[in-house]
Specification:
Structural class: alpha+beta
Largest sheet: 4 strands, antiparallel
Number of helices: 3
Distance between the termini: 27 Å
Low-confidence stretches: none
Number of strands: 6
Order of helices and strands: EEEEHHEEH
Strand order of the largest sheet: 1-2-3-6
Radius of gyration: 20 Å
Length: 127
């Protein structure tokens, strides 16, 4: 689990569980990349959904179209919080010990993703 990002030291501190089941903290080097969701804009209109050409011409007046195109319907990006960048692990600066920790971080992230997918599927079926 990510505990904190230290931008001064350019590290991410994670809490992990070792093979014996004990918790420990590790620090891994990070760098910042342009956010893939908002593409560095800090906001986006992805919450609106797709607008077909038919809807655009039939349901949207000129004023609404101009507002949409100028970003008037955009909301702050939920992935980067409007910062336009996101921290990622800088694999070029990892030590051997940190590589093992990153494997655990990735395994934990994959398990979390799978659990989220299972929960979403259960919600779709009314569970």
């Amino acid at each position: 689990m990510l505990v904190r990002i230290d931008e001064n030291r350019m590290i991410a501190v994670h809490e992990l569980i070792d093979d014996e089941g004990d918790e420990y903290c590790c620090a891994v080097p990070i760098r910042f990349e342009v956010c893939g969701t908002c593409r560095g804009k800090g906001s986006h209109s992805l919450h609106i959904g797709a607008i077909t050409a038919d809807e655009w011409s039939r349901d949207w007046c000129d004023e609404d179209r101009a507002r949409y195109l100028s970003g008037g319907y955009d909301k702050q990006c939920g992935d980067c919080g409007g910062r336009r960048v996101q921290p990622v692990i800088d694999e070029s600066r990892l030590t051997a010990d940190q590589m093992e920790d990153v494997e655990r971080i990735n395994e934990e992230a994959e398990a979390d993703w799978e659990a989220d997918q299972m929960a979403a599927a259960e919600r779709r079926f009314g569970c």
